[in-house]
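Record type: monomer structure entry
Structure origin: computed from sequence
Chain ID: A
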Amino acid sequence: MASGSPTVSREARESAPETPEAAANLQVFCKLCLSEQPSTATTGLQSCKCIYCTACLQQYVQLAIMEGGGAPITCPDMACRKTGVLLDSEIAALAAAGQVELYLRLKFERGVKLDPSKAWCPVLECQAVCNVEQSTEGHPAAVPCPTCHTVFCSGCRGPWQDGHTCPERQAMMTPSHQSRTRSDSDSDMPIKQCPMCGIYIERNQGCAQMLCKSCKHTFCWYCLQNLDGDIFLRHYDKGPCRNKLGHSRASVMWNRTQVVGILVGVSIIVLVTSPLLLLASPCILCCVCKPCKGDKKKKKNKSKKDLSQSDTSTS
């Protein structure tokens, strides 16, 4: 895919218009519809300076609002060097008023979900945003609602009582047969929530290693376990998710071989260059040490002045 800079046709570059009328007829290549459009029918993004035809951007923004869940709407060009993000004013100019209102609401709800210091009041008639005080050692805390004065648990959103224990936390500590059966049946559901940000994700088929486009969290589709540090995909070698990755054994081994090759290559480069750096470090330190240079220059200048003064005194 082309880079983030706008593409102008060859005829337009050769003509090099100077008048406003000629500049209005300048043809710009749109990387969405793959056609040349007059500059008057195009829109440029402020963050990355990419230019697309207005009709394509309108369709792109409308689709991003419906499927993005309030996530930032980025530049359509996947190869955009600046990874531009559309401003709210640009979205308002490209989408209808109802869609803009929906996007702002989803954006606000997403911000509350991603903010650990915020929580929605569980009372349906209230739905106020409450401040959550982070407790020590990861234990749930009591959250008072400033609107309806309901006190609820920050973990399970249930009513808070003295000695309260979250049912979800208790189930995680002592899983029962019923919970395991429910988790096994839930693993076949086509739509699930990201365990990190809570956004809904749909999976039709393919790899079971999921990457949330909202918070960039990597997890297993079946058990929702964190896979951010599992570069070798060892999670699918044992346990209930064994052989459920969705790829052949040969492709998994090839992926591991590539990862090992990259790590070995980086380590070899470090081992080869480290002795050279150790040998060259005194020279580098001497070259970089500017105060030493300044002291030497001052001593030389002082010695020259002393010599000149002695010459004048003898004469």
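Annotation 1: Residues 249-288 form the longest helix (40 residues).
Annotation 2: Residues 1-6, 8-17, 169-185 have pLDDT under 50 and may be disordered.
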